[in-house]
């Protein structure tokens, strides 16, 4: 049976992944994409920061355009089991995020508390606004070179 095109998410997975990396980088995090953070857990994007004597803090993002929600949740659960990972995020359209939230209800409470949801529309908006802000700040000539 053919898929209904109106039900297909209207965003590009790699573009959102790259915007997540750009946002994290703009905020001062060390960022990377397609990162193995735990056995069996490769996430789309990570933000890492060294925090004083506390060590490394990691945030993981998984972009869900389609496919298995159970697979997404297992990847994020495995990622969350890594000692440096503070929070994990499912990134998708509103309809899929609602489905992911519903499916996550059966997961352990500690995991659910560490699970965040970020709509792709907001990712695009933040990416655009941060880029504009950085352009303005760079135009002030506060620092030599790129900020």
Structure description:
With 147 residues, this protein is of the alpha/beta class. It has five helices and five strands, in the order αβββαβααβα. It has helices at 13-26, 69-80, 94-104, 109-114, 120-139; strands at 30-38, 41-51, 55-63, 85-92, 115-119. A five-stranded mixed beta sheet has the order 1-2-3-4-5. The chain is globular and about 50 Å long. The N and C termini lie far apart (51 Å). The model is unreliable at 1-6 (pLDDT under 50).
Structural class computed from helices and strand pairing: alpha/beta
Q: Biggest β-sheet, characterized?
A: 5 strands, mixed
- The general outline is globular
Helix-strand string: HEEEHEHHEH
Unreliable parts: 1-6
Output mean pLDDT.
89
Trace the largest sheet across and list its strands. Answer: 1-2-3-4-5
Q: What is the number of helices?
A: 5
**Percent in strands:** 25-35%
Q: Give me the count of strands.
A: 5
Report Rg: 17 Å
- End-to-end CA span: 51 Å
Indicate the percent of residues in helices: 40-55%
